[in-house]
Design brief:
The chain is of the alpha+beta class. About 20% of the residues lie in helices and about 30% in strands. The chain folds into three domains: about 5-95, no CATH class; about 110-290, Jelly Rolls (Sandwich), CATH 2.60.120.10; about 295-440, Jelly Rolls, CATH 2.60.120.10. The chain is built from twelve helices and 25 strands. The strands form three sheets. Strands 2, 3, 4, 5, 6, 7, 8, 9, 10, 11, 12 and 13 form a twelve-stranded antiparallel sheet that branches. Strands 1-21-18-23-16-15-14 form a seven-stranded antiparallel sheet, with no helix packed on it. Strands 17, 19, 20, 22, 24 and 25 form a six-stranded antiparallel sheet that branches. A hairpin with a 2-residue loop joins strand 2 and strand 3 (about 120-125).
Length: about 450
């Protein structure tokens, strides 16, 4: 995908488009299919370019002014600049002419979020406080060194997790008195229902790093129910009556939260499972090998894996897709009919355009460790703008993953319906891909 240049501006189709200022005309009379293709290619390429890090001046600019600015003809900026940030977000600094209106933020980065660092690991989060538009989902990025624990805890939100590096042991306790215990590694995930107590411990020589996603936009990793605090803030006499421990034992318990702390490595998984015996949960699976599952879609431009309640039954309120897009490939134009989308970018560099009601549109550049957000039912498209594969997660607060493909919708439109809306001849309309591709080109 190329930047608008002088040759684009001087082409007849581009000049006509600039003079109109409102897009493709309202009819096709007297215009050949070749001219329509030329005009459409100009508009289509520009429509995939980016817009703002901040909702700003795009609404007040004409298309010609925005095209000129991208070509270096706009006003200069002699004042202060954060050149590092501008370099990472070129489409915010010089938005394309297709950007329009004032949109809610669609980008944040874990690298802007403060870290909570403790012996054994660290954590930081992107929630509704950091990304106000994301009201349904929040994310936490956590690191545990070898042997270190995320303290036994529970919370009001469902927890979905994806292992980024290393290995970990996870446990979850059920109301029926049975415990699930398993080891996970990079590419694996887990799901812990709200209210069930659980733990995470780093394994191996280097521990692990993982992403946690919660189905509460205002979730806070600093506001969970902790084993240490439950005991420390219950009177010693009551603890004695509850546990049968002598009174003096309460004085040796942790007086404050442990949260993340160092500990020896555990026994083997087989030995710890043997200890549980009949209390080991065997039927319900709380872990899933997402990275090694067969893709639901694969072509020359990338692949897609989907995990939801259909193949991971315990995950009743969070669905996910893991996408890989090759250099030059795009995630086709689409939307999700009844759910917003929360993204985590694992690898690579790309950009996303989001179009909402009233013609409001923004494009943002994304890099590894960034978070993207798409409002419910908003149309969007993603392009790999780098030289390596991009890998990212799409997360939804829903039991089942769903999407609508723009190309597939156009392909199903009866001829008169399509011509009336697109103002194109049917011979051109039918050149659109006839089925959902997910990633293009196929």
């Amino acid at each position: 995908m190329h930047e608008t240049n002088e040759s684009d501006l001087k082409s007849p189709a581009a000049v006509a488009e600039t003079e109109r200022g409102t897009g493709i005309g309202t009819g096709v009379s007297g215009v050949s299919e070749e001219q329509l293709l030329s005009r459409r290619s100009f508009v289509g390429v520009s429509a995939l370019a980016g817009a703002g890090l901040f909702a700003g001046t795009a609404a007040a600019q004409t298309r010609k002014e925005m095209i000129d600015a991208r070509a270096g003809k706009g006003p200069t900026d002699p004042g202060p600049e954060n050149r590092g940030l501008l370099g990472m977000n070129p489409n915010s600094n010089k938005p394309p002419f297709t950007d329009h209106g004032t949109s809610a933020p669609i980008w944040y980065s874990f690298d802007l979020a403060p870290r909570r660092i403790q012996p054994g690991g660290w954590t930081h989060q992107v929630t509704q406080r950091e990304l106000p538009s994301s009201k349904e989902l929040a994310g936490v990025n956590m690191r545990l060194e070898s042997g270190a624990f995320r303290e036994l805890h529970w919370h009001t939100a469902n927890e979905w997790a994806y292992m980024l590096t290393g290995k970990a042991r996870v446990s979850v306790m059920q109301p029926n008195g049975k415990m699930s215990l398993d080891d996970v590694e990079a590419g694996d995930l887990w799901y812990f229902p709200a209210g069930l107590p659980h733990s995470i411990q780093g394994l191996g020589e280097d521990g692990c790093e993982f992403l946690l996603v919660f189905d509460e936009g205002a979730f806070s990793e600093d506001d969970t129910f902790l084993l240490s605090e439950f005991l420390a803030h219950t009177s010693p006499e009551m603890v004695e009556k509850n546990t049968g421990w002598p009174r003096e034992v309460w004085d040796t318990l942790p007086a404050e939260e442990l949260y993340i702390f160092e500990a020896p490595l555990p026994d083997s998984l087989e030995k710890e499972r043997a200890f549980l015996g009949e209390h080991l949960e065997m039927k319900i699976q709380y872990t899933f090998k997402m990275g090694s599952m067969a893709p639901v879609l694969k072509n020359a431009s990338g692949e897609v894996r989907v995990v939801d309640s259909r193949n991971f039954p315990v995950a009743q309120n969070i669905a996910a897709a893991l996408l890989t897009i090759r250099p030059g490939g795009v995630r086709e134009m689409h939307w999700h009919p009844d759910m917003s989308e929360w993204q985590y970018w694992v690898k690579g560099k790309g950009r996303m355009t989001v179009v909402t009601t009233g013609g409001k549109a923004r494009t943002m550049d994304f890099n590894a460790n960034d978070v993207g957000y798409v409002p419910s039912t908003a149309g969007h498209m993603i392009e790999n703008t780098g030289t390596e594969d991009i890998v990212f997660l799409e997360m939804f607060r829903a039991p089942v993953y769903k999407e609508v493909s723009l190309n597939e919708w156009i392909a199903r439109m009866p001829p008169r319906m399509a011509e009336a809306h697109l103002k194109l001849p049917e011979s051109l309309i039918r050149k659109v891909p006839q089925k959902k591709a997910g990633i293009l080109p196929e």
